[in-house]
Design brief:
mainly beta; signal; 13% helix; 3 helices; 184 residues; eight-stranded antiparallel β-barrel
Length: 184
């Protein structure tokens, strides 16, 4: 079982109270956000290829490297330039470790001290959280590797890109936790 699926299943069990003790008891908070772009929206924005974006933001007990993380699932439409080496209709997943930026030097101008950024280990890209409230989440990225690359396969790595604009923003609405665990 992949890391996203393993952790998401534990988080879902903890949130539903089906499992007592153990690793699931470590999950303190699971917030789920999603954006499904309509066919009409995609028709008006030809450069966009993201059809659905789902984000799970998880906080675990303790202060360890992975105490805050993001589970990302992306589904692409058959258009645009927002995905590289991707196939329409396939769900791509990635797990990103989240941290608070203390020194924004080298980050885009909107990043201030205290901004939360979630990054893929090994220079696989990052997603910044521009704003987050009880109903929505606004994200920024220049690009993120999707999935675990297999260097022995020779296959190109799937990437969520900036749609040729240098960076891209996504606004997602809060949804029930089940939306974040449907594929994991």
């Amino acid at each position: 079982m992949g890391m996203i699926r393993h952790i998401a299943v534990l988080a879902a069990l903890a949130c539903t109270g089906l499992m007592a003790g153990g690793a699931a008891a470590q999950v303190q908070k699971l917030d789920c956000y999603e954006r499904l772009y309509s066919a009409e929206h995609l028709a008006k924005h030809a450069a966009q290829s993201v059809r659905r974006l789902t984000v799970a933001l998880v906080e675990e007990a303790g202060d360890h490297d992975w105490s805050r993380w993001m589970g990302l699932t992306v589904d692409f439409a058959a258009q645009g330039q927002g995905g590289r080496n991707v196939r329409p209709g396939v769900e791509y997943e990635q797990t990103l470790r989240c941290f608070t930026v203390e020194d924004p030097h080298g980050w885009p101008g909107w990043v201030k001290p205290g901004t939360v950024v979630c990054a893929v280990d090994g220079d696989g890209g990052a997603i910044g959280i521009i704003s987050r409230d009880k109903d929505s989440l606004l994200l920024w990225t220049r690009g993120v590797v999707l999935g675990e690359p297999d260097p022995t396969s020779g296959a190109p790595v799937p990437i969520l890109t900036d749609e040729g604009a240098g960076s891209v923003r996504f606004k997602l609405g809060r949804v029930p936790a089940g939306a974040c665990t449907r594929t994991w």
